[in-house]
């Protein structure tokens, strides 16, 4: 049992799950951690890592068939935790590719669409993005203004989207638009005439990741571009819940890495003739971090077991997303205080993680949205409007 795993949570994982964790942890140690300082500083996303993640079986890993890895929800969560211990931006890539774009095709696409896109996406050879959020429609996607209008046997797409991950490097975009039949999803090749993706810069968070503004100007699409199974907001929401689930695990990865960095530093840093770790105030900080990481990880494991059993409800995902993001960002900020002034440099991870978590805390449902979801569950009264 690891020194910091006081509850022996590793004992809740199978040998196969622990083996996967060690593989992903090794990848993060060897491939991400040595490079993340430069990637973050330069606002660079290493596109070549897509195929590397595909080779590890981490893209669409919870999906079955069509060349997808077919792993369990808990295994996907473990991978998300380890990747985010490296950087939220790299975990976000796996989430956008697998939990959003690939899940949309897998859940709602035709057999032809699934066979066309999913095998290549699982390998990282085809990159996808997921366009739901708009400049004026973030937490309330029902107010989206992007439209798809029938024109003969096809469609014409117009509108804008914002904060769309991977869009400038993607080959295929899952775009949600309002139609006369309600909200529908479309698979839009990013080289379509009228499709424009512009990376949002500069950013103070998620710098080793890509988010874009999208513009659609009279993009003509055949009816075969429509996701036939997706009708209404249930389509995109089902994908958002997949991404929210991964965040429950991933946020604890960022928290754990920050705690470990602070612990290591406090054991080595001498002040007033003894290490920082020997002071009561430092020990209190470390203990409070450890308690929340252990509780948050236990919550993630329990949520994953429910997902694998087919009993997980959306409101339960909100519990995990709200709690673990909120606690993770507090942990990362507190870890920075142990590092003192050194903590504001990229030589140490906590402040980078904290900055990234500002984005993680905001996307896939803000604290306020998940609070209202839980409030409605508790009281029976919706308070969104």
Task: Please give a quick description of this structure.
Helix content is 51%, strand content 15%. Helix 4 (73-86) crosses helix 7, helix 8 (280-309) runs antiparallel to helix 9 and helix 9 (314-339) packs across helix 11.
Description:
The chain has 385 residues and is α+β, with helices and mostly antiparallel strands. The chain has three domains: 9-122, Acyl-CoA dehydrogenase/oxidase, N-terminal domain (Butyryl-Coa Dehydrogenase, subunit A, domain 1), CATH 1.10.540.10; 128-225, Butyryl-CoA Dehydrogenase, subunit A, domain 2 (Beta Barrel), CATH 2.40.110; 234-379, Butyryl-CoA Dehydrogenase, subunit A, domain 3 (Up-down Bundle). 51% of the residues lie in helices and 15% in strands. The chain has eleven helices and nine strands. The chain has helices at residues 15-32, 36-41, 49-55, 73-86, 88-108, 111-122, 234-268, 280-309, 314-339, 350-362, 367-379, and strands spanning 128-131, 147-151, 154-165, 172-179, 182-189, 195-199, 211-222, 270-271, 274-275. The strands form three sheets. Strands 2-3-7-6 form a four-stranded antiparallel sheet, with helices on one face. A hairpin with a 2-residue loop joins β4 (172-179) and β5 (182-189). α7 packs antiparallel against α8 (280-309). The protein is globular. The model has no long low-confidence stretch (mean pLDDT 96).
């Amino acid at each position: 049992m690891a020194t910091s795993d006081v509850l022996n949570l590793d004992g809740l994982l199978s040998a196969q799950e622990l083996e996967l964790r060690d593989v992903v942890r090794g990848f993060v140690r060897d491939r991400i951690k040595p490079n993340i300082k430069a990637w973050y500083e330069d606002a660079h996303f290493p596109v070549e890592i897509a195929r590397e993640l595909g080779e590890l079986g981490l893209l669409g890993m919870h999906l079955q068939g069509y060349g997808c890895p077919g792993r369990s929800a808990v295994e996907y969560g473990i991978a998300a935790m380890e990747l985010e211990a490296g950087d939220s931006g790299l975990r976000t890539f796996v989430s956008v590719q697998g939990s959003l774009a690939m899940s949309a095709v897998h859940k709602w696409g035709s057999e032809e669409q699934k066979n066309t896109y999913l095998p290549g996406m699982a390998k990282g050879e085809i990159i996808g993005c997921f366009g739901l959020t708009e400049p004026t429609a973030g937490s309330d996607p029902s107010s989206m203004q992007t439209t798809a209008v029938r024109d003969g046997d096809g469609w014409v797409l117009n509108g804008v989207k914002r904060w769309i991950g991977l869009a400038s490097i993607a080959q295929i975009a899952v775009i949600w638009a309002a139609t006369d039949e309600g909200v529908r999803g479309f698979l839009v090749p990013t080289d379509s005439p009228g499709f424009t993706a512009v990376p949002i810069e500069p950013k103070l968070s998620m710098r080793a990741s890509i988010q874009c503004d999208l513009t659609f100007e009279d993009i003509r699409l055949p009816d075969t571009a429509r996701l036939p199974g997706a009708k209404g907001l249930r389509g995109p929401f089902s994908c958002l819940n997949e991404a929210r689930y991964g965040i429950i695990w991933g946020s604890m990865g960022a928290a754990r890495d920050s705690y470990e960095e602070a612990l290591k530093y406090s054991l080595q840093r001498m002040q007033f003739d003894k290490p920082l770790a020997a002071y009561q105030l430092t020990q209190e900080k470390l203990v409070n971090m450890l308690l929340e990481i252990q509780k948050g990880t236990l919550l993630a494991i329990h949520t994953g077991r429910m997902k694998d059993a087919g009993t997980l409800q959306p409101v339960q995902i909100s519990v995990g997303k709200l709690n673990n993001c909120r606690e993770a960002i507090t942990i990362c900020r507190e870890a920075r205080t142990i590092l003192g002034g050194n903590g504001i440099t990229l030589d140490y991870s906590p402040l980078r993680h904290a900055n990234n978590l500002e984005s993680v805390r905001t996307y896939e449902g803000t604290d306020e949205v998940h609070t209202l979801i839980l409030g409605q569950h508790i009281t029976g009264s919706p308070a969104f409007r």
